[in-house]
Amino acid sequence: MILRCDWVTGADKLYQDYHDREWGTPTHDDRKLFEFLVLEGFQAGLSWWIILKKRQNFRAAFDGFDPRRIAEYSGEKVDELLLNPGIIRNRRKIEAAIHNAQVFQRLQQEFGSFDAYLWGFVSGETRHNGWKSMNEIPARTPESDALSKDLGNRGFKFVGSTICYAFMQAVGLVNDHVLDCFRYQELVAMTPRV
What we know:
Elements: H1 13-22, H2 30-43, H3 48-61, H4 67-71, H5 75-82, H6 91-111, H7 114-119, E1 127-128, H8 142-153, H9 161-170, E2 174-175, H10 182-190
Parallel strand pairs: 1-2
Helix pairs in contact: 2-3, 2-6, 2-9, 8-9
């Protein structure tokens, strides 16, 4: 029997696959990082399960999360998105995604990539936390506070510390799989030894 984190126990295949293949995997592709940042913003006040079920629709509606294209969206495009039943139709979140795409590109220019900027918050290496139960996992950390503050200072929207920590978990800056979950050791093995 494969042991997984409690939050995926009894879940359907889509959620289980997300846990088994994506959540916590170190991610270094800027477009993928942008996708997760946008989706975590859309998740605010909702469950990740809702976002995950709509992710393919989001990808289609938001041009594969290409920040260059999203940064140029017009008011007409916002209106079109607000009529799309396949995504979360929240004007503030849609407008934040467009605004964040513009800020994201400026940050890429400054640091060479969003990846280089982001991974600096954990000194370039996944932090393996080693929790025994899901109850131990915090909703935010000093690192997510720092990331949230810096992103906010640069003009990003929907980047509170809790959102940032969920983002950090999703893209592998932290390994918050519990110790007895099979993914915990898989992710530890992915971390280069120095």
